[in-house]
Every structure is written in C-alpha cells, then in structure tokens.
Amino acid sequence: MKISMAIRSLRKPLLHRTAHLGNPPPLPSFPKLSEFAVSVAARPRPIVASSAALEWRTGERTCRRGGFFSGSSGHSKAPGSCFYSNGGAASSSYSGGSGSSYLELTDEELMRQCEMSTFKSSGPGGQHRNKRESAVRLKHIPTGIIAQAVEDRSQHKNRASALLRLRTLLALKVRNAVDLEAYSPPKELLQILPLKSTVRGSDCGPQIGPNNPKFMLGVQALLDLLSALEGSVSEVAKLLGLSTGALSRLILSDDSLRLAVNELRASKGMKPLK
Amino acid sequence: MKPCTLRPSFVRAWPCIASNFSTSFFQLPPPPPPPPLAHARNVTQIRHRRFHSSLSAPPPPLLASSPPSLPPPLFLRPPKHTTTVSELLEWHSWAKSLAASVGSSFEDSDNGPDSSLLCRELNWLMDDVLHGFDPSLMGKAVARDDPDIVISLRADVQELYSLWKQRIEERRPFQYIVGCEHWRDLILCVRDGVLIPRPETEIIVDLVGDVISKDEGLREGLWADLGTGSGAIAIGIAKILGNYGSVIATDLSPVAIQVASFNVQRYSLQDKIEVSEGSWLEPLKGVEGKVAGLVSNPPYIPSDDISGLQAEVGRHEPRLALDGGAEGMDDLLHLCNGAASMLKPGGFFAFETNGEKQCEFLVDYMQNQLPGSFCNVNTLSDFAGIQRFVTGFRNR
C-alpha cells in the first residue's frame, strides 16, 4: 500500500542517526571496501592498499594542520596555516610500526594525522552564507583512508562522527602481520568473543558488543588473524576455542565486520558467509 | 551535553515576566526592521562614522503587549498536539514535493539552498517536531497498515504547513523556522533579529581552547565576546574554561541580549557569563588592560554587497550584524584598537573576517598603526580554505 511506502521513506532519516556507526549511511563518494586490497604478507609494517587517488569534488580546497602558533613573531599568511596543531612536529606522534596503534591514539592525536576539509567552498562563506552544509571529510594521511560525515546539524558533530567512522575504517582496512607460530589471541580480541570460547579466561569480563568503542580493536585483531589464515573461518575458530558456527554468528552479527570478512574471503576466491 | 528543560532558578531570574520563560521570551516584540543605512553599533573613531541617534532610544519594554509575538523554539515546546500518521505523512509528502519543485533555482539566483539541502532540512524539522518520538509506533502503523494511529507533535499540522511555506516561499531561514541552530555540541535558540551562528565560527572556540591549554594564566582570566548575538562563542568558551575564568558577552541589540541570556541560562552558565548590553567595548569600562582574551565575529560584509546576499541572509537576518560599512572593516578596526587597550600583556585575540583581503588589511594595520602592541599575529583559514581569522597576542 502507498502508506507503507511513505512511512518507510519517513522513517529512514529518523533512524539512521542512531545507527550510523555500525552502518554508515550510504554516501555517494564513500570508498568501498573493495577499493582496498587486503594483503596477508607477513611483514612487520601495516599494509594498506594504496588506492591512493580517491577523487573528490574538483575545486575543493583542503586545510591542513600546520603550526598556527608556531612561535615566530610577526605574521604569517601561509595558506596552509590552520587550526588543529599543537605547535610543530605534529606528525612525530604517529607511531610507525603497527597499524593497530592508530586505534590507540587519542582523538586529538589521530586528528593531527588527518587533513580535514568541507565539501564545497563556493562563494565567500561566513556571514554571507546560510546553507547548513556542515559536511566534514577527513583524510588520514598515513593510510589515505577517507571518512566523512554529513548527516548531522553541526559541523562539530559531523567531525566527531567522521572521526569515529575513520576509526572503524582503520580497523577494517589496515592489516597487521600475525605470527602464527606463537599465536595467542590479544585481550581486545578475547573480549569480543562469546563466553563459551575455551581460550577466553574469566578475567576478560563480559562480552563486548558493537556499541562499545573497544569492539573495533577486537575486530581489527580478528581480521588480522583471518587474513593470516587465508580467510578460513574454521581455522580461526580453532585458534579462538570456538565452533565454526559460533564464530560465523559473531561475524554476521555486525554489518561492517561481515562485509570486511566477505571482502577478504572474496579476494581469496572463497564464498561469502551468509 | 543534553540541553535541560528550564530550571526553576531561571524562572526566578525573570520574576517580572512570566512563569514560563521560554514562552515569555519569545513573546518579545520582534525587532523593528533596521533602517536601510543604520550602523547604530558603530562607534569607531577610525572612520568617523555617523553615530546614530537611534542608539540612545530606550530598549523595547520586556513585555510589550504589541503583537506579533513569536512562539518558542519547536524543540522546547510540549508535545501537546496530536495527529494521525496519515495526516503527518500527507504533510511530509507535500513538503517534500514543494522542496523538490525548487530544484536548483535558488542556487542559481543567489547561491541559496537546492532541493536536496531543503529535504535534509525537512528531516531536521521532523526531528524537532517529533522529538522523543517512538519510531516503533510508525512500525506498528506499517505492520497493521493502520494510518489512523495517533502520534504527538510539538506543533499542529496546520502550523507545519505554514512554517514550510515560509521556508520555501519567503526563504525564511530554517533556523528561524525551528527557533534553534545546532552549533558545536550546543543547541542555541535563535529568533528573528539575531544572527544565526555559522559553522565557520565554531573554529574560534577551538582556537581559544588551544591557547588556554598552553597558558593557565589565560584560562583563569576574563574573556570577552563582543557582539555576541545568540551567545554562541561566549557559551562555547565558558564551557571549555571549565571551573576557571569568566566571560563577558556584549551586544548592542536588546534582542540579542535577551536571546544570549536565554541561551546562557539554558546551559546553566549564568554564574560564569555576564551578558551586558552596550556597544562593543563600552561594557568593558573599568577592566582596561586586564582582559585575558577578546574574541568577536563582528559585521564584516561591505555595505554594497548586502543587496546581493542569499535571500535567507539578506532579507531576514539583522543588517546590524552583517553590514561592516563601506569596506566591511569599520567594526574590525575598532576592535583592533580595543584589543590594544583592553588586553592584558600576553592576552589573546581572535577576530573573524570576510576573507583574505580583510585579514591582510588587519595584519598590516596592526603592524603600522599600532606598532609594538601585538605579537604572533597570524591569519587562519576556515575549513573551506578561505582566510577567515586573525589572531594574536598583546605584547608583554
């Protein structure tokens, strides 16, 4: 009936605000997982596929972090100067080595690794303009991963949403090497496992779900392991003390995790989990 | 922070008006339309602009009986109206098709909003009208295909028709329609006669946050937001100052003073922010050389550009808050002089400007007309890459 369709179209905008972390609303330019090859090479550095050139709108101007109270007297009108710096040497806080360390950074530290821009800059802006376009786009410089947020009413909140989304993308896309010989699951992975896992000690506390910010740390470790085991869910399940069915249920319980696992399996020529 | 409902102490603060502040506040008479060339705010000595006699006129009485009065912001109203799902949907699809009919015509004529932006605003309007609404009710209506399920609204459906008509046909700004603007993590009430805070201006609060994180002395001092409008910057700063320091927010417009006070009270910051009526620096008399920080988003649009503004801005927002004189610099230059006299040694200032040209002019002015007054003067871009802010410190 007509009314059902109309109601559905009405509900969508009301609902997505609460659900956007796990399921980012579809945005036209949001990079698809498939744009990032997933690599399994056992190297000590994070591997991010370099689909470097993710084209954005032409004419967009970005505004990079840069020393804005860099101490020099007089004045600077360097076009790059902007806020979000805490003085120079911002990038030194980026700890090379393991990709999982990105997720351990504070928001501020992570933000300092990003280039932030708004979508459009036609016209003089400021007081001239009242268009409520508060969309924000973050580009994570070390990995080239892009996250954006458009749906909220304030730029400030869109920035926070974009940063959360960036954390999710970093967990899903940056693969770390795993030493299979001496593997023992890290605590953040154990915490997202169901209680019946035989390798999960009692000190892990209750199972962490997708609404907990720490969930993504576990997801990252799980994907690292799955990647090292060539996409085999049953092999991963063995190492985690779970039945294949139980691990599958965990994977299918979160959309972003399911999509990432299936991307990974597809790249190995395996069937998707359903 | 979730905005609270009005607190009793707030009502006590306004015993003269009414028991329900949100209602009484918005029953203030709307400001008279500004005379075409009034720059009442300007008292600068730099350009010797005419000091308008309207300045000395008494502010309008608090409880003027003269209509029209404005209803309170949608999101603060009680959900006392009811309607059926089908009636609401009928309104929604009408509103959506009205928005769609705009296409890109506003954008083409004056860089106004296009259909897709208007549709997003429509969703936000739904958010405010259906605040606290339980979507499962809609689910039930779908499941049972029952269009007669009753839901509660903060405005009746007839008013929604009229509001959306104003939005599209009169180009009345969305923020005046719903009575609020989401800015940083705040929800600020706004109404006709007060400038709607812009996303660019959010950065000023970040700049202050950066400065006080490095200088405890500044955190503990007095901060001034001149020409505060809705109180946005003052409230943003007060929140990041935490338990330290205090803020004074000034504005020439009595309506802005009322709105800013209202917002300050909503966030329970009345002990931290003093809202004071007066032109620019006048309310700061007695603290010369003692102010830790001075920030402002003054009117900076050149007078000749006012007529070409986007309709939402040019037709509806207060000219007093937009028109910065022939070059748009009158108030900014006045503020530069003010910063030199008001700031304590090491004190910080940040001003929003119209863009690169004004930024450069100000930097040059400070160097050549106020030599030795400031150090670390810098210009900063907004997120669209436009040179938007001038910042610096009073020389020690």
TrEMBL record, chain A:
InterPro entries: Pep_chain_release_fac_I (IPR000352), Pep_chain_release_fac_I_sf (IPR045853), Prokaryotic/Mito_RF (IPR050057). Residues 113-172 form the Prokaryotic-type class I peptide chain release factors domain. It holds the Pfam family RF-1. Coiled coil: none annotated. Belongs to the prokaryotic/mitochondrial release factor family. PANTHER family: CLASS I PEPTIDE CHAIN RELEASE FACTOR, LD18447P. This is Prokaryotic-type class I peptide chain release factors domain-containing protein. It comes from Eucalyptus globulus. The lineage of its organism: Eukaryota, Viridiplantae, Streptophyta, Embryophyta, Tracheophyta.
From TrEMBL, chain B:
GO terms for molecular function: S-adenosylmethionine-dependent methyltransferase activity. GO terms for biological process: methylation. It comes from Eucalyptus globulus. It holds the Pfam family PrmA. Keywords: Methyltransferase, S-adenosyl-L-methionine, Transferase. PANTHER family: PTHR47441, RELEASE FACTOR GLUTAMINE METHYLTRANSFERASE. This is Methyltransferase small domain-containing protein. It comes from the Eukaryota. CDD domains: AdoMet_MTases.
